[in-house]
C-alpha cells in the first residue's frame, strides 16, 4: 500500500488514492452482484462465469501497466464488479445442485477454502511484492487461469427460465430474502469492524511486529476454515436460527476478548473465537438465503444478498464511528458486543413468544 501511495505522488493525495484502490473493489462487488442475476438469466451461468473470469483477470492485472490514477481506479472498480458476478454465479450453482445438509456442507467448504486462499494469497502477494511492487496484480490472472479448466470441463449447467415479469414484479418476488439480507448486512458490518479495528487495539498493546500480526490472522483464517468445514454437521443437529444466534454471540464474545487484549495470547484467543463465529455464521446465512430464495430467480436473489452483505462491510466504519466517539477504540468493542447480545436476546424472546402463541 505504501508503494502504491508513493507511486501516486506520496503525501495525503497519494495515500488517498491508495486507500481508494483498496476500497473501490468492494463497491464494484456490490454493483456487479446486483446486476449479475439478470445477466445470468439472460446469457447463462457458464457464459457469465467465463466472461467475469476474463474481466477479473484483465482488470485485476491492469495495475502492472497503468500509471495514471483514474484509469487504475477504474480497473479496480471493474475487477470488483467481475468478482461480484463470479460470486453470484458460483453461489447459484450451489443453490441449484445441493439441498439440505449437503448444501450447508458445500457452503462451509467454499467459505473454508476462501479463508485459506485469502491468507495464502496475502502471503504470496507479500513475497512477490518484495522484488517488484506491481507483481501482486498478476495474481488475478493466475487465479483465473487456474480455475479456467474446471469451468470449461464442468458438466451440463442448467438453463434458468427467462423472467417475463417487470422489474417491480421481480422485486416483490425477492421479499423472502429480505430478512436474510438484513441479518447478513448486520453480520458483515460486525465482522469487518472487528477485523479493521483489531490492529489498532494491537498497536495500543504494543504489538506491532508484522510477523506476529500475520501469525495471529493466520490463526483466525485457520479457525474460519475448520469451523466452516464442520458447519455441515452442525446443520444436521441445530436449526439455522440457533446457529446464527450462537454465531452472533460468539462474535460478541470475541470482540470483548479483543477489546480487552493486552498480550499476544489474548489476541490469538480472540481471533480464534472470531474465526469460529465467522465459519458458522457465514455458512448459516448463505444456506438460509439459498433455502428461501425462489428457485427460478435464484441468481437475482443471491446477487441481492451479496450486495447487502458487502454494503454492510462498506458502511461498517460509519456504523461503528458513534461507538468509537463515545467509548474510544477499546470501548467500541464492548459497546457493539453489548448491543449484539441485547438484540439476540430480544429476537429469542420474540421467537419463543410467537411459538407459544401459535401452540395455543
Q: What's the arrangement of secondary structure elements?
A:
Elements: H1 2-7, H2 11-43, H3 45-61, H4 69-97, H5 100-129, H6 139-153, H7 167-173, H8 178-204, H9 210-237, H10 240-259, H11 264-292, H12 298-359
Helix pairs in contact: 2-3, 2-4, 2-12, 3-4, 3-6, 4-11, 4-12, 5-9, 5-11, 8-10, 8-11, 8-12, 9-11, 10-11, 10-12
Tally of extended strands? 0
The CATH class, by name, is: Mainly Alpha
- CATH-derived architecture: Up-down Bundle
Uncertain runs: 356-360
**Would you identify the CATH H-level superfamily?**
MFS general substrate transporter like domains
In CATH, the topology is named Growth Hormone, Chain: A
* Coarse structural class: mainly alpha
Shape: globular
Give the tally of structural domains. 1
Main location: membrane
Membrane topology: Multi-pass membrane protein
Pfam family, one: MFS_1
Subcellular location: Cell membrane
